[in-house]
Amino acid sequence: MGERKRDSDRKLGRRALLVGGAVAAVGTAALAREELAHLWWRLPGVEKPRVAGAVDFRGARWVAASSANYRRADRPADYSIDRVVVHVTQGGYRSAVQVFQDPGHGAASHYIVRKDGRITQLVRELDVAFHAGNREYNERSVGIEHEGFVERASSFTDEMYAASARLTAAICGRYGIPVDRKHIIGHVEVPGTDHTDPGRHWDWDRYLRLVRETSTDRPKASASAV
Ligand SMILES: [Zn+2]
Q: What top-level branch of life does the organism fall under (predicted)?
């Protein structure tokens, strides 16, 4: 589950000031290249066009999280994405959607995978969802919640593993993320967290194998079509 504590943007004030017209006064030389890259999405007219209800994974159903539970960004242009973070909701699908739509919750993930394999997207991948309880990890990752409970092995169904592996394989393919345990991690492995998900019943070997199989399972171009 996402961190309850609000993952607010501590640089917001300074960035807003700079975008408000102080850039020229400060002098662009004074700004690190990285800082500029993080600034540009706030400038009018440079944001990527967004289509209402669009999803990043074919077949996912769109249900918008509250805009208070993520930060608009333009990944991977402003922040590169090199991690997938696996979560468990500690509850049912409905309650997970409910809290992610609650502006007071302060957290949301990009996706929820249900027991039957259905996938819901709540935050676009280009945006920074507050799911890891660690600002840097939020900025560099895509968060996937899984319906269920860490202490119940029965939460993690074949359909869930298969669907989640397809989703993670697609994310890794899009951003060039290596399919290994350094880059596909549990919430428990995020520095500074006190969360334990996905817990001991989550089968990492099985999951990574499925992700790898899906990654290499792309249809090959037939010789006659060349
Ligand atoms: Zn979590």
A: Bacteria
Catalytic residue among 3, 125, 139, 145: 145
Is domain 61-215 in CATH 3.40.80.10, yes or no? Answer: yes
Tell me which of 8-12, 187-191, 214-218 is least confident: 8-12
Backbone angles phi, psi at 152, to 5 degrees: -115, 110
- The neighbourhood of ligand 1, an ion, using CB within 5 A, equals 1, 87, 187, 195, 197
* pLDDT(51) > 90: no
The domains of the chain are located at 12-42, 61-215
CA of 189 to the centre of ligand 1 (A): 10
Question: What is the per-residue pLDDT across 92-125, written as a single tens digit (0 to 9) for each?
Answer: 999 999 999 999 999 999 999 999 999 999 999 9
Q: What is the pTM of this model?
A: 0.79
CA of 219 from ligand 1 middle (Å) equals 34
pLDDT tens readout for residues 84-97? 999 999 999 999 99
Contact criterion met (CB below 8 Å) for 132 and 193: yes
Distance CA 120, CA 11 (A): 31
Q: Is 145 annotated as catalytic?
A: yes
